[in-house]
Amino acid sequence: MRIGIDFGTTHTSAAFHHGERTQFIPLDRRSASPHLLRSLIYITRSQEAFLGLAAAHTFLEQDTGRPVVYEEKVVGTIENTVAQQGRGPLEPDGPITIIYDVTVEEDVGAQGRLLQSIKTGLRAGSYEGTNIFGRYYSLQELISLILSHVRTEAEATLGTEVRQATIGRPVHFADDPTADRQAEERLCEAARLAGFTQVTFVPEPVAAAYTYLKQSRRPETTLIFDFGGGTLDFTVMRSDATGAPAILATHGVGVGGDDLDSALMRRNVALHFGVDSPIDVNYDGRPLPLPEDLANLLARWQTIPLLSRPQRLAVIQRAKKYSPEGDKFAALESLVMRNHGFGLFERIEQAKRLLSEDEQTRLVMQADAINLDVAIRRAEFNLAIGDELAQARQGVREAIALAGIEKGEVDVVVRTGGSSVIPIFQQMLAREFPTARQVAADTFGSVASGLALHAHATN
To answer: Quick one: fold of 2-57+115-202?
Structure first.
């Protein structure tokens, strides 16, 4: 039994191909789409782990709206031996050893720790793991919590032991070949910790290509545009009348749906938390802006809690008192000190999805001192993600160049991944390939389906 696993930045899915049909493995029975597991982990102080929607709901129930309270805790000591510069009559000869306590600031009110976008840690060679309430988890251990759940659910669904897996991977975890190889090795180790004894890897856009070829048996040149939460990947392939593929090129760029959420936060939402407001007035009457390093921490919900550290919090509280727009900084204080960052980004992500269907939507959030009701137009969103759009366009052109073909030779563009439904990216593809038809693949299922097909073919 070899299954295909799409371990994604945003969602995880898995499938098995029986020879004539592909069966998705239900991974989150609480979800409206049970075959999709949100790649979320919530670990409590007692080291109990929740995954998917259970992780999100437990975090929102236990850790949102509570006060953030930091205390210094001693976590160890450092010995520093130095030469003695001088000595008194009763002091010993020789060097002096000084012992320092090592302290960290810990949010003692936290009931648990929520981890999101864990996959992106694979491309950060410096990130090895994290300490959660006194227990150290390596990155491989954290990923294995999700992969172990996948294996357990697959065995329950298929009624047999599952020890083999074909796992999707980005075309490039990292630009550096050594870092890229290390990332795959760490993902392989995570799979082995989860109980898989045989593991192979297939680039995610190549897997999506297998799914498309299963449905279309015609000679054509195809571009796969796989836009997920963490990366944007491409495959250029040519198939004959039997549907047999020849991969001409694979390519990827480091932009994903999470970056689009951050862009929307910076342009449309952060200003309601004082980013463009004065925190005070200088001695000569000029307004003092919120320091840039503090504003940058609002770009992702994971970094928002860092604003609760004493020195940064003092700036926010001073602004709440002295700024002519103190209500915005009161909202920022609530966002930071009542742990509403995750809930805010959930609404940002929902607004992003709605803008794919409507020209305008509203982002509404009422919590403590936060009273948001922001109208966001699709045109504003398109401006906010201008840099990401440019990266996507350049990535498409580089993929075509690597394939050694002209744009006009592309017959079909297959879109997959959650961010591939955003209209501005579809319009970009139409401009780049005006003679090609666009095909919308299963947004969250085509990669897992293709991995299952590949697993079946190589079993």
So the answer is: Nucleotidyltransferase; domain 5 (3.30.420)
